[in-house]
Amino acid sequence: MSFGIIYAGFGSFCDLSSNQARGWLLGWQESTLAPLAANRLTDTLATDIGGFYLSSIWMSGSGIAARGNGDLFFSIGNSDPNQNTYDGVRNIQESVVKVAPTLVNLLSIFTPFTENVLDQGDNDLGSGGVLLLPAQPGPFPFMDVAAGKAGTMYLLNEASLGGFTPGGPDKALDEKIFGLGGHPFVARAQDAAKPAALNTNAPPHEITGVLEHADGPVLTLRTRAGKIAQVDDSDALRRGQIGVLVAGNAYTVQGTYDSTGALRAQAVLRAKASPAIWPQDR
Q1: Dist CA 191 CA 199 (whole Å)
Q2: Are residue 198 and residue 164 in the same domain, yes or no?
Q3: Longest CA span, the chain
Q4: pLDDT, tens only, 232-260
Q5: Which residues contact residue 9 at a Cβ distance below 8 angstroms, ignoring those fewer than 6 apart?
Q6: Is the full-model pTM beyond 0.70?
Q7: Domain end: 158, 182, 206, which one?
Q8: 166 shares its domain with 193
């Protein structure tokens, strides 16, 4: 429920009755249970002799997500595996969708360029819900996360989810593959992208960014440019040059790169809160 309206997503049961089942986003006024006039379908396009629909909203039981302004977010499952039926208007499958609270306006969508491949493999993006992250410092204050059966996790700019780019690449902020057992993993340090502004010829190196999480001695920072950097802080820990780190706070890391591509921190310092006054990475 959000702002006095009860929302629910509906779809199919195991893709049965595909000539009838389709995704619905429905809303009712809490006080009267009167339905919203603009209750939405995700698929109005019958695509074969049997009238294939689907594009269900199921998300493994996750609810419709709502931001503080009332905007709604959900993900959608597969449509016809026998032909490409996506058009972004009459049929929106394998997508993350943002709609207005009244359900009148479709505000934004993100559809992986592999949507037809996902359909063919029954690898619904809509098998997982949409996670709305708390407000963050940096160029993208509001970001969302979605992932489905195929194992790719998408980090999206909530202001403009990314649309659909035929042939790719997707206009997501980041894409990661899930680890074994369905849990997201942190990429190896040697696979992490170094900030674009980094000058590897001018040690000691320095990176400033928001701490996303710490996995043992490995810190994951998102820099002002939106890049992911990974840091090994074990040396700083041994020297006692590090305090309690808090995810969401900004830190400046000083150190040198080792042969694996990891930045080995000599010191981890609390940075100014505003990215606008962070020092340049070097």
Answers
A1: 18
A2: no
A3: 71
A4: 776 665 555 556 677 888 888 887 766 55
A5: 23, 24, 25, 26, 57, 58, 59, 64, 74
A6: no
A7: 182
A8: no
